[in-house]
Structure formats: structure tokens, C-alpha cells
Amino acid sequence: RDEAPEGKLDLLVTLDFRMSTTCMYSDIVLPTATWYEKDDLNTSDMHPFIHPLSAAVDPVWQSRSDWEIYKGIAKAFSKVAPEVLGVEKDVVLTPILHDTPAEIAQAFDVKDWKKGEVEPIPGKTMPNVMVVERDYPHIYERFTSLGPLMESLGNGGKGLAWNTSHEVELLKKLNGEGVEGASKGLARIDTAIDAAEVVLSLAPETNGEVAVKAWASLNVFTGRDHRHLAIPKEDEKIRFRDVVAQPRKIISSPIWSGLESEKVCYNAGYTNVHELIPWRTLTGRQQLYQDHLWMRAFGEGFCVYRPPIDTKSVEPIIDARPNGEKQIVLNFLTPHQKWGIHSTYTDNLLMLTLSRGGPIVWISEADAVKAGIVDNDWIEAYNANGALTARAVVSQRVKSGTCMMYHA
Fold first, then answer.
1. What would be the CATH architecture of the domain defined by 311-404?
2. 363 near 377, Cβ under 8 Å?
3. N- or C-end of the chain: fewer Cβ atoms within 10 A?
4. How confident is the model at residue 161 (pLDDT cuts 50, 70, 90)?
5. What is the pTM of this model?
């Protein structure tokens, strides 16, 4: 018989509130609610605040919130599951993880056991093999309750672990308890707000008591006491209603390397330097050399000198239309804008008023001298794609050979 095609999808289901390209190729599109039609949490590693998404209007037409869609699928699945599936055993491969002893299981290059390069040994040369119990008839009850392992094993991250029994009891009082079936005696997660409360209660970034326990777990590895970083906010517990009233600043956590403080601006690697916490590398130190096969294949294993500019793309047009002014050739970078807000572009009049009032390009002091440019001069920048005019911001913070124009 003919060989079956590899990598073929029998069914593609997409959840998206935009009719994206993926949706266009999908068999089923689940229309989810947009930002102001659902309750949710929003944060990132680029700013220190927890923001809410709160429902101002009901989802339109057949749309539902993400939580209601997944809950609905779980409920429908649990109804039909007993006809074909019960409590089943499933073999699952779990990868060798960072922050575990297994990440140094192979001393040198990683060999591929599938190609016969090395003997397949679970947890050393291949993923761990685990047997997992799937209780298919009770998927819905499990989805809408906090699992029992959170009370017996606790929570953790980045190789750390801490007890969460107190937080589990808090959630039982806050969200209520299941009364029957697989969720009996467990904290309920019926609504999106319930799910948000679970996240806020268990995360060290939003629960000061958990933050202290998380830092205490790091003490075991470093031999130093780091709890002082969270003790001032030990009694702070951020609830969903709190962030709806006003976005709240997170609490310092060992999961991240920065420090949330009124005295220190957030800066990656701050706790590694000032708290003497080992860097999250194999050596525990800052590494300049990446001994990874694919990094070496690209010639990127070590920090090496790169010429500051490649003029191939602009060489044909340099001096093509001289205007009598001095010219210099610089690398043109477009970093993510710093002086703005995500809800609007920086060309908003209010935002422009806080800066130079119009488009700006940052250049170094050394390059400004070469071109006879002083701060706030009008300059013209051009390459093979086109040209622009902007004010020059002359700064010692910009590296020679480079100019920057923040986008968005």
C-alpha cells in the first residue's frame, strides 16, 4: 500500500477573535471574546504591573470568553466520554528540563538516540517516560476545580518548590468547594474570575505570603537569606477586584531576576549581582560562550567582533543626490519604543508634547561631531528603501556607528 503522508492534520481547530491566516486554513474556528468582552488577567515580563481585562459588554453573536469555550468543550466531552472512554492509562514523554540535574546528563554534544547515535536512556539521552491516568468521564469536573496535588505537592517554578496548603484553603473559602464527583472538597473554578483568583492567590508576584515562601525555598540552594526582599509585602494579597479598581504592581519573586522596589528600577540580573544568586546557566556564572551544536553551526558560539555596518544595501545610493551637507553611514536600528503606552502610538499629540514634538532619531555624540550635527537639528536619513526627516537626539548612550529610531 502507499505510504501515508507524514505531518498531515486531520482536524485543525483555532480559537481567535481575529480572522487570521490560521483561521482561514482551519476546519473549525471558535469565536472568542475580545478584550472588553471578558474577564481576564494581563501582564508580561516587560512591565511590573498586573492589569485586568474586565467585561464591559457581552460577547457578540456566538462569541464566548476563552474560559467558557474550554469549559464548554470539557462539559460536552465528559458527556460522551463514558460511551467509549473511561479511566485510561496514557504514556507521556516529558522533556529534560532546565533547572534540573538532567540538563547536564550529557557532558558534551547531545546525541540523537533516534538516529542510533547513542543508547536511548530515559532522563539521560531521551525524554522521561511517564504513565499518566486520564479520567475522561470527569474531565469537566477536573477542569472546573483546583487539582488535589496543589495541596499535597505544592507549587513552584525555575527549580524551586514551596507549600501552598494555606492558599488552597483560602481558595476554598473564596471560590467555594465542589460537592460531588471528582471535584468534591476541592476549590471550585467555575468562572473566569475564579480562575483569575487561583492565579493571583498562588503566584508569588501577587501574594506576599507566597513570595516569602518562594524566597525561602531559594535559601536552600544559595545558603543565604533572601526573604527580606518580600517580607515588607508579606501581608499584601492582590485580588481580582483590586486590579479592576487599579492595576497593581507585582511583588519581588525569585522566578525573575529583577527587583520590584520603590528605590530600584527593574533591571534584569539585579538579584544575581546584589543577592549573590547564581546565574541560571550550567556554570552558575555569566557565560560568553554557548557550547551548543546549533549555535556553533551558525558561528555564534562565542562573542566575536562584527563590523559596525554593511554598506552593500546603501552603497549604490550614497552621494546619488548630494545636498551639500556632510554625510555619515550608520547602522539604522528600530527598537521598541520606551516613551509611550500600549494603547496608542507615539505620534499622539499628548505623547509628542512630552518629547521633541515630532519624529526623532538618536545618534552618538561622536557621530554627531563627524556630521556637524548638534542636538535637536533637523536631519535626513535615507537608505535603499526611502528617506525620512526627523530631529536629532544627540546622546552619549548611543554607540558610535549606530542610530536609533524607536518604532510604534
1. Beta Barrel (2.40)
2. no
3. N
4. very high
5. 0.78
